[in-house]
Design goal:
The chain is of the alpha+beta class and about 280 residues long. Helix content is about 20%, strand content about 30%. The chain folds into 2 domains: about 5-55 and about 155-270, Trypsin-like serine proteases (Thrombin, subunit H, Beta Barrel); about 60-150 and about 270-280, Trypsin-like serine proteases (Thrombin, subunit H). The structure holds 4-(aminomethyl)benzoic acid.
């Protein structure tokens, strides 16, 4: 009996001690804080304000690897052809350095890993400027084994671009979690972005970049949702005429997720003929 009374008193004292400690914590904002740590907080504005995805949700996404390291994203056009950005392939004449990982949510492991056979970079792409005609087609050595995790995506046509749903897209990749960071996301992420009117895009970049008809801008008006370094070459996808289509290829931009500075994408519909021809010739 006496024993039990002591035990109750000790338990009550312990509870009081714990609640005092919790109060102290809350007041002094020490270890148990509900606010995200600074690093997470500043990740608003990277792929960029997005969410983690499983590859079966984005089965046309691939990682293009240079010497075994994730370099860029890409989109599956057919069993042997990937569409990506020209600026990913400074070493386009050394395809043996490149490989494609498909069918995995992680760029470092899983899925299939196929060597690249040949790289076709748009003839007008000027690496010195790094902008304009930023498109490439890559052939892999063996056909991709299509599955729930590995699927092609059709190219957007001009007609698709005038569809009512055209203005909301999503972009995906393993790119930076912070502007200026060299760290890549180990797992695939995606974010929705809105197309900017061409006029608004030209105005936004008037001081720095000449925005051409071959480019498309997308982002969020207030910033905070964008592609970033390492997402380059990856897919910008829209829903048109009842199916998903490849609308853009991640190309460049100033910073990531900055207000008023949307991401710049290669406008796939403008290069549809070029891609189809390159895919046949490669
Ligand atoms: C890059 O450096 C890059 N915010 C890609 C996309 C964007 C900016 C930079 C768009 O590869």
């Amino acid at each position: 009996m006496k024993h039990n009374a002591y035990r109750s008193i000790i338990i009550i004292l312990l509870c009081q001690l714990l609640s005092v400690a919790a109060l102290f914590d809350a007041k002094h904002n020490t270890t148990t804080t509900r606010e995200p740590p600074k690093q997470l907080e500043s990740s608003v504005g990277r792929i960029v304000g997005g969410f983690e995805a499983h590859i079966h949700q984005i089965p046309y996404q691939v990682s293009i690897q240079q010497e075994g390291v994730h370099r860029c994203g890409g989109a599956i056009y057919s069993a042997t052809i990937i569409v990506s950005a020209a600026h990913c392939f400074e070493l386009w004449d050394m395809p043996e350095l490149f490989a494609v990982r498909a069918g995995s949510s992680e760029h470092e492991r899983g899925g299939v890993y196929l060597p690249v056979r040949r790289i076709f970079v748009h003839a007008q792409f000027q690496p010195a400027n790094g902008v304009g005609d930023d498109i490439a087609v890559v052939a892999v050595t063996y056909p991709l084994p299509f599955s729930i995790n590995i699927q092609p995506i059709p190219l957007a046509s001009s007609a698709d671009m005038s569809d009512a749903y055209r203005s909301v897209y999503f972009v995906s990749g393993w790119g930076s979690l912070a502007e200026g960071s060299r760290l890549r996301s180990p797992r695939l992420r995606f974010v929705t972005v809105k197309q900017f009117e061409q006029r608004a895009c030209k105005a936004a970049y008037s001081r720095t970049v000449h925005i051409t008809e071959g480019m498309l801008c997308a982002g969020a008006l207030g910033g905070g949702r964008d592609s970033c370094q390492g997402d380059s070459g990856g897919p910008l996808v829209g829903y048109a005429h009842g199916r998903f289509v490849l609308v853009g290829v991640v190309s460049f931009g100033i910073g990531c997720g900055r207000p008023g500075l949307p991401g710049i994408y290669t406008r796939v519909a403008e290069y549809k003929d070029w891609i189809e021809l390159a895919a046949k010739q490669i």
